[in-house]
Amino acid sequence: MNIPTVADVLAARKAIAGTARRTPLITSALSEQVEQDICLKLETLQPTGAFKLRGATNAIAALSDEQKANGVVCCSTGNHGRAVAFAAKQLGVRATVCLSKLVPMVKVKGIEALGAEVVRIGDSQDDAGAEAERLVKEKGMTNIHPFDDRNVIAGQGTIALELLEERPDLDTLIVPLSGGGLISGIALAAKAIKPDIRIVGVSMDRGAAMAASLVAGKPIEVEEVASLADSLGGGIGLHNRYTFPICRELVDEVRLLTEQEIYTGMQALYGMDQLVAEGASAVGHAAILSGKVQITGPTALIITGRNVDMQQFSAVIAGDAVKLGDVIVSGKDKVAVDA
Ligand SMILES: *Cc1c(COP(=O)(O)O)cnc(C)c1O
After folding, report:
1. What separation in angstroms does the CA of 255 have from each of 128, 174, 175, 185, 276?
2. Domains, the chain, ranges and CATH?
3. Which of 145, 182, 275 to mutate to test the pocket of ligand 1 (most atoms within 8 A of CB)?
4. 265-278 per-position pLDDT tens digit
5. How many A from CA of 229 to the centre of ligand 1?
6. Can you tell me the distance from the alpha carbon of 81 to that of 52, in angstroms, rounded to the nearest whole number?
7. Residue ranges lining ligand 1, Cβ < 6 Å
8. What pLDDT, on a 0 to 100 scale, did the predictor assign at position 213?
9. Does the keyword section mention Lipid biosynthesis (predicted)?
10. What are the tens digits of pLDDT across the range 229-240?
């Protein structure tokens, strides 16, 4: 198996310059509370509103002319699809994006606006993935995988280069974790530069496929359910090639959060740092405020994306109740309700 290296990440930085931007690193208001430097890497400021533009651009740029001519396809919880649509447009490549019905409308519209063809299919990320595979076989398109792809991982890893150039003293990186492309790229680049840096992955506690797979010692499937962190949904693939072995080797801790904790994290991200962002972006705040991650030195949180459903966001900020499958969360005490 050909695991990407920091050399691939350095090459990716050149390939994505001009499409994905270098994002700011700002100080969080959490710093005062925990009496330690907490900084926020604002991937929300990418042109597509999420870090996934880095990996998608690197992967599409690496295609042969023949592959480019046949077009690209992907499945996505939303942000990867938008990134593929954006990068494909810039490079003059046709793109088809397969989305399950769990993907919020705001993300569907964003992808269509970029000129990509959208296919809405099934009730899970796996269903969307199966459709993408079908289009590869039927039309000879190239599948740009949302995380289990060397070039995607290397692209996401460019975040770590920027972080450690700006703050070589960082002790811990707290990274939202789903399929693991982001944390794999970050971990392999960061640990090549600074071997003792601590890498912490954070997911929701319902449907966290990578966390469950790490415990099981092999990729396993979990049921996908509605979450405030909708971008963290989806499996890691039973035939996972890269992100599972990289996470097993390089991720130091994985922490799981309740929906109520993510809700509180979203309120803090907005209330303390005035950032409008997705639930997936608020898991760092949630992990610190819940005490599930101990702060041991200067820490960076990756604020991964801003493509939030505004109605849901407004409800969270107002402290109103939000229903996610069989769980209801609100600004007051947690109310757990059976279906
Ligand atoms: C995709 C995504 C993640 C998780 O990235 P993985 O590479 O799948 O682990 C986190 N936050 C946002 C906003 C995303 O779009």
Report:
1. 27, 10, 10, 19, 23
2. 6-50+153-329 (3.40.50.1100), 52-143 (3.40.50.1100)
3. 182
4. 999 999 999 999 99
5. 9
6. 9
7. 50, 52, 79, 147, 176-183, 231-232, 278, 280-281, 304-305
8. 98
9. no
10. 999 988 999 999
